[in-house]
Amino acid sequence: MDVYWVFIDLKSKSAVDDADFEIIEGLCSLLEPVKHASDAVCRNDATLLSADSSLEWLVDKLSSDKSLLGPKLHAAVIERIGERRFNFKRLHGHKNK
Questions:
Q1: Residue 78 has pLDDT above 80, yes or no
Q2: Cβ neighbours of residue 59 closer than 8 Å, sequence gap 6 or more
Q3: How far apart are the C-alpha atoms of 66 and 12, rounded to whole Å?
Q4: Residues whose CB falls within 8 Å of the CB of residue 63, separated by 6 or more in sequence, listed in order
Q5: For residue range 25-66, what is the model confidence (pLDDT) as tens digits?
Q6: What angle do CA 56, 61, 66 make, to 5 degrees?
Q7: Residue 74: count of CB within 10 angstroms of its CB
């Protein structure tokens, strides 16, 4: 839904100009892939493989975003994924090559 029409529907009296709407719409479009990936990961029938594929898709989408916040969100998602992943190769004594 267009952000402009949401403000009209809410009968908002906020002083929001066209530049503000562009920023808000850009943020909404940036967060759309995050919503889709989150929905996919949270499905009842999600598996580790489908969750991993969803996160790879999200990282790919964010890496191609050229907005001001796109690279920052991309870096934050990569960092968070790195914090949450477990390296099974270390468990079994294998060395990463």
A1: yes
A2: 74, 77, 78, 81
A3: 30
A4: 74
A5: 888 899 999 999 999 999 999 998 999 999 999 999 999 998
A6: 140
A7: 19
> How many other C-beta atoms lie within 10 A of the C-beta of residue 37?
21
12-20, long-range: CB within 8 Å, 24+ apart, which pairs? none
Angle between helices 48-63 and 70-84 (to 10 degrees): 150
**Integer Cα distance of 10 and 18 in angstroms:** 17
CB within 8 A of 23, min separation 6: which ones?
none
Q: Which tokens sit at 10?
A: 């809410």
User: CA 62 to CA 69: how far, in whole Å?
Assistant: 10
Structure-token pair, residue 57: 């898709």
Q: How many CB atoms lie within 10 A of CB 53?
A: 14
Rounded Cα distance between 54 and 24, Å, is 25
- Residue 33 burial (C-beta neighbours within 10 Å; 0-12, 13-18, 19+): buried
